[in-house]
Amino acid sequence: MSISLSKGDKVSLSKEANNLGISLDDVVVGLGWDQNDSLGSSFDIDAWALAISCDGIKTKNLVYFGRLNGADDCIHHMGDNLTGAGDGDDEAIIIELSKLPKEYKYILVGATIYRGKNRHQSFKDIDNTFIRIYEYNFGEEICRYSDEFKTEFGDSTSVLFGVLHRKNKQWEFNAIGKGEDIDKITDVLNIYNNFSLDNYLEGGKKTMAVSLSKGGRVSLAKVAADAGIQGGLKNITVGLGWDVKRYDGGADFDLDASAFMLGKSGKVRSDSDFIFYNNKNGTGIEHTGDNRTGEGDGDDEQIKVDLSIIPDDVEKIDFTVTIDQADVRNQNFGMVENAYIRIVDDVTGAEIIRYDLGEDFSIETAIVAAELYRHNGEWKLNAIGSGFSGGLAALCGNFGIQV
Q1: What is the 3-state secondary structure (H, E, C) of 175-235?
Q2: CB count, 10 Å around CB of 224?
Q3: Which of 389, 289, 386 lies closest to 331 in space, CA to CA?
Q4: Count of CB atoms within 10 A of residue 72's CB?
Q5: pLDDT tens digits in sequence order for the chain, 403 residues long
Q6: What angle do CA 347, 351, 353 make, to 5 degrees?
């Protein structure tokens, strides 16, 4: 049975497909509305989809009647309907989720009234508008969003219906229901240029985390200014996450996040500068606790940092991940995927920087993920992504600690 959504609702497409006994390889976003010529011209509503990758928004990834294919040829518009005549879907977009490269995490879906402003048309004049998502091969409808658009969106000429969100290899749909007053579909490239799902659902400022590649550097002050965070960054959370890709050894796969506070020499000032699950607190740094399995969504371990009280003689803070008892259990980072590190502003809750480490590791048992460092009086982040063999002992030795 299809799930009926209202504004603000979300549904796990992967879970519902599993409940229906079908795979979620390809889905269709269907748009429908009733024909209406009352204002002298037919209402021509155009469906669109905008895939957002780690590189941000690209024109080539906006799919609509003027660009039928996008997102590495994994999203396809099935053709233009100029009137809304007939039953069922009036326009449809196929999304090949199973082929969509993993760097695409958001797919915005919406509809815009063609020449709506010029024709003085808006969604208040249209009856029975809906979108629905169904599985392509079996035709099973998973969910439908059909709020009262006539009153909800008023004079809007464009609507962001919702967002398909890839989360830990699963797909969910968030019914956002946000109207805009725009002239043409391509205007959405500017409107959603700084899209963030969390902030959008909360109705706040639309900000998008800066995405770094290995070796990339960014100023925390600049990122805060771009995100509209007043007063810059003071309290942040460094979140680290990962999934176990393949392992049949029987033992738990326990990864541990740590922080090393380093002086001018690039070494710790003392052993107490090594912050981990057995030494959770340092001046300005707190480890929030050990996760021994990596299960669940979101960050697997977190380290909180108060930048305002980090000692002046600490010039760098390196954030690392190691595999506990890797040598005994014959485990390594070749068995790990979807590893990342991210920076979150504790005041606003906004994710402001993210570095997806990729899958460049094999026999390594420890990783230096990223480094906060001072430069000309301000903090910057360096995406390092460097692997070590020898586990925790080798990592500690590198930073001047004997274990």
Answers
A1: EEEEEECCCCHHHHHHHCCCCCHHHHHCCCCCCCCEEECCCCEEEHHHHHHHCCCCCCCCE
A2: 20
A3: 389
A4: 16
A5: 789 888 888 899 998 988 888 888 999 999 987 766 555 567 788 999 999 987 778 889 999 999 999 999 999 999 877 655 566 788 999 999 999 998 898 999 998 988 777 778 887 777 778 889 999 988 899 999 875 555 566 678 888 989 999 887 889 999 888 888 887 888 888 888 767 676 565 544 445 567 788 888 889 988 888 777 777 889 999 988 877 655 555 566 778 889 999 999 999 999 999 999 899 999 999 998 766 444 545 688 899 999 999 999 999 999 998 888 777 888 888 787 777 888 988 887 778 888 887 666 778 888 899 999 999 889 999 999 888 888 788 889 989 998 7
A6: 120
Give residue for tokens 């922080």. Answer: 259
Q: What is the pTM of this model?
A: 0.52
- Residue 8 DSSP symbol: T
Q: What is the DSSP string of 141-174?
A: EEEEE---HHHHSTT-SEEEEEEEEEETTEEEEE
For residue 65, the tally of other CB atoms under 10 A from its CB is: 18
Do strands 235-244 and 130-135 pair parallel, antiparallel, or not at all (unpaired)? unpaired
Phi, psi of 401 (to 5 degrees): -115, 130
Q: Which amino acid, one-letter code, is at 159? A: V
Let me know: does 213 contact 103? Beta carbons within 8 Å.
no
48 with 112: CB under 8 angstroms?
yes
Compute φ and ψ for 99, nearest 5 degrees: -105, -10
- Which are the contacts of 29, defined by CB distance < 8 A and separation ≥ 6? 47, 49, 92, 93, 95, 109, 131, 132, 133
231: phi > 0 → left, psi -120 to 50 → alpha, else beta; which? left
**DSSP for 329-351?**
HT--GGGEEEEEEEEEETTT--E
